[in-house]
Amino acid sequence: VESSIPEDLRCPRTRARRVRDDYAPPYPAWVARASKSIRQVTMAYFGVQWKDSHLAAQANAQFAQLTAYFAAADGAAHFDRAVEIDAAGFTNLIAIAYWTDTTAFSRWQADSKLAEWWESRAAAGGRLGYFRETFSPRIERFETLFSSPDRMEGIGVALQGRSEQDVMDHAYWGSMRDRIPLSQTDALEASGGVIARTGLPASQRLRIAGHENLAIIRSGQEWTDTEGRERALYTTEMEPILRAGMVFLRDHGSQIGCYVNRYMQHVDASGQPLQKTFGLSYWRSLAQLEHWAEFHPTHLAIFGTFMRIVKELEFNLKLRLYHEVAVLSQDEQDYEYINCHAGSGLLRACNPG
Amino acid sequence: VESSIPEDLRCPRTRARRVRDDYAPPYPAWVARASKSIRQVTMAYFGVQWKDSHLAAQANAQFAQLTAYFAAADGAAHFDRAVEIDAAGFTNLIAIAYWTDTTAFSRWQADSKLAEWWESRAAAGGRLGYFRETFSPRIERFETLFSSPDRMEGIGVALQGRSEQDVMDHAYWGSMRDRIPLSQTDALEASGGVIARTGLPASQRLRIAGHENLAIIRSGQEWTDTEGRERALYTTEMEPILRAGMVFLRDHGSQIGCYVNRYMQHVDASGQPLQKTFGLSYWRSLAQLEHWAEFHPTHLAIFGTFMRIVKELEFNLKLRLYHEVAVLSQDEQDYEYINCHAGSGLLRACNPG
After folding, report:
1. Which positions in chain A touch B300 (Cβ < 8 Å)?
2. How many CA atoms lie within 13 A of A109 on its CB side?
3. pLDDT digits (tens, 9 = 90+) for B116-171
4. What is the DSSP letter of B322?
5. Which of A78, A170, A266, A323 does the annotation list as catalytic?
6. Residue of A83, A155, B83, B164 with fewest CB within 10 Å of its CB?
7. Beta-carbon neighbour count of residue A321 at 10 Å?
8. ipTM entry
C-alpha cells in the first residue's frame, strides 16, 4: 500500500489522521495521481435547463453546441454528460468537463466563439436556462477514490494516472479528509457566505461568489458489469435507499449545510441513459459533509445497506464506485446562472444583493 | 465540558484521539467518576440457567439465595437482576453485582457460606446450571457513558459519582476507546486465546481463562419515562431493530470477534420485567467491537434508526441510555460454568483442553 497523498505533497502533520499509524484497510482502493507538472485542475459543470418537453430538441441542440466547444484548442481533457430532473420538475442536462491546466481552461473560456455563444444565451431570452459552475482546486485541495484499479472516472480520466498500489487511507470514517493533502496542516473550516456578485433583480443572469472552503463531492456508481443476484440487490435494495438519501439532501439538505444536491444519471451523446449515476453535492464545509456521512440516518441507511450487500456477496462486487472531493478556496469557484429558476444550484443558497 | 478521563489518570498521549483537539460534541453526556481511593472494581455476572418451566421455582429460589449473599459483609455495592432466553431456549437469570474494592470482592467470594453454596451447586447435579463471569478491571481499563446526569446505572451506581460537567469525548466514532484511560498510551490489542483452565470432559464444571485485552460492553436503555410518540417509536421501530442486531451478535457474532451476546431485560425481585434492557457482549478485542459499531449493517441499522428518531423528536428524548466498557488484562477475568449447556457464555468460544 501507499499513502493517498502524493509524495511531493506530504509534509509533517500538524493535524492527526483519524486512525493510528498502524491502520491497514480491510479491502483495497486506489486514487488518481497527477503528474508533477499539474498544480491546479478545473472541474466545470455546464448546464442547460428546461421544463416543457417541447423545448427538449432545442435544449439538446444547444447542449451539443456547447459540448462541441470542448474539442476546441485548450478544450477539456475529458467530459461526461449527465441528466437530472430537479425538485421543481426542470430537466438539467449537464456536461462535466475537466482540465488539468487551469490556465488552458481560462484561455478556452475566453475563446471568442465560446464566449460569444455564452453571452448570446443571455440575450436569447426564451425558456431555456443555462448555468456554469466552475471549480478550480489546487492539487492540495482535492482527493479521489476508486474501488477498482482500472477505468477511472471524472478527474481521474483527465489526470491519466493512478496510485501504483492500493492506498492506506480509506475504509474508515474521516478518511476523505485525511486524503486531502491540505488537511495535513489545515482544518479546512468554512468562512464567509455565498453572495451574488452581479445580477439582475429577477435573476435572469446572476453571478455568484462562493466562500472559503466550500466543499463539493461527486460520488458515483456504475452497475453495467453487475449480474444476477448482485444486479437485483443493486436495483431493488441499494438504489431506492440511495435515491431516498439523495432526495433528502436535495429537499432538506439546507438544514445541515448542503447547498445543492443533484442525483444524476450519465447519458450518451444521443441522450440515452447509461448504467452509471452519481450524487453531486455542494456543502458549506467538509465538516458538514462528514457529519452527514457519519451520523445522518439517510447516509447510515445507504452505507448500512451497502455493507449488507457487500457481506452477502462476500466482497465479490462488480459494482464500481468512485468519488472526487474538493475543498475550495474562495478564488477557485465561479458560478453563473442565466434564465434559471430560483431553486437552481447555488441560486437557492445565495443571499440576494 | 471536561475530559472523560479522570484528572489523575491523564498522561501525555502517545496515541492520538480520533478527533482534533478543538472537537466539541453536539449534545451532552456524562461519565461515572470513582473516588481516588478506588483503583480496581469488580463486575460479576452470576447466572442460574434452566430450560424446563417446571424448574423455574427451584431456579428462582437458588437465585434468591445467591442475591441474599450480596448483602453479607464485603458484599456488592450494587446489583441488578436481568433475564435472557438464550439461543438454545434456556432461561438465564443473571445478577450483575458491582464492587468498588476488588479485595472486598475476593473476601466475599471466599466467604464460607457463599463458597459452600457455590461448591454445593456442582454436587447438587440436577438440571439447573450455574455460572459466574467475573471481571475486575483496574480503573484505567474501563469507561462509562450516560445520556442523563441523574440516575446512574451499573458500575456508575456503585461508584456513586459522576463527572461534574458533561464530557468532551463522546458522539464521534472511536470515542469509546478514547474514554478508556489506558488508550492514551496502549493499543489495547488482543493476544492469546480463550482456554479451559480446569474442567470435566462433559463440561459439567468448567473454569475458563480469558485472554489479554478481551473487551466487554454492557449497553443499556430504559424507556420507563417515555410517552406518546417517543414510546411508540421506541417500541415499534427502535426495539425491533435493536433486537435484530442483538440476535445477529448472539447467533453469528463469532464470525466477527464477538464471543457472547446476551440481550437482557431487567426484572425486579419478584421476577417482573422492568422497562429496561441491555446488550451484554464479550469480544475478542475492542477493535472488533469498534468495527461492528462503525461498519456492520446490523449496528448501522440500530444507530441510523436511533438518529432518525432523535431527529424526529428534535433531541427531546426521555429514553435513557448508558453503557460501560472494559478491556481486561488476562488476570482480571474469571469464568466458571457448572452444569451449563455447551452454548453458554464463553463455553462456546473455549478450546477444550
Report:
1. 300-301, 303-304, 307
2. 18
3. 999 999 887 778 999 999 999 999 999 999 999 999 999 999 999 999 999 999 99
4. E
5. A323
6. B164
7. 16
8. 0.87
